[in-house]
Design brief:
With 93 residues, the chain is mainly alpha-helical. It has one domain (3-81). The protein contains 3 helices and no strands. The relative contact order is 0.04.
Amino acid sequence: MTQRGFQDILAAAAVAVAFVVPVPTASACAVCFSDPTGPMAQGMNMGILTLLGVTLGVLGGIAWFLASLVRRSAAAARMNSAGILPAIHKEAR
């Protein structure tokens, strides 16, 4: 048997033992077994809301920036087609 085959068998045996042997102390976190209106659960909820707020704020800022680029590009194209803006890419004389 090769070294790799032995390592695979050992890893499979370790996974099988981990699923078969019951570990009652690691079955759930303290939040799951505590009072849902307790301070630990309230802190967890506020943490989740904070992370959601930060994520939505960053994504909203990116969306606003992209929308402003689209608006400015459309306005510049309208002004350029109307002849209001000078041509930027003229050949050098």
